Amino acid sequence: MTVLAVSAHTYWVIALIIGLAAALVVAGLLAILIRSVASIERSVDGLLAVAVLVGLVLNAGLGWWWADPLAGYVILFYGLKEGRAALRHG
């Protein structure tokens, strides 16, 4: 089950990276603010997906049970930081 979860999440991260690259190209060509914001959101999604993948791999491969919850804290604190920034600017 763990190998399946890591494999599925790895494919998801790769798809996010490919989608991010495409979104950045489209945003650059069209120079539309909405597209830029969407590509930034997608890059954040990709970074968070990588954090989850690292937690899964460290947990499954090395038995570091604390790595997956640590990835959750990374996601939590990043979300709080972005939420505060959005409230300040929005």
Short précis:
This protein has 90 residues and is an all-alpha fold. The chain contains three helices and no strands.
Layout of helices and strands, plus pairs?
Elements lengths: L1 H29 L2 H30 L4 H23 L1
Helix pairs in contact: 1-2, 2-3
Could you characterize the architecture of this molecule?
The protein has 90 residues and is mostly helical. Helix content is 91%, strand content 0%. It is built from 3 helices and no strands. The mean pLDDT is 77. The chain is flat.
Helix-strand string: HHH
Distance linking N and C termini = 42 Å
Rounded Rg: 15 Å
- Helical amount: over 70%
Number of domains: 1
Question: Which regions have little confidence, pLDDT < 50, spanning 5+ residues?
Answer: none
Biggest β-sheet strands, sense, barrel: none
List keywords for this structure.
91% helix; 0% strand; mainly alpha; flat; 90 residues
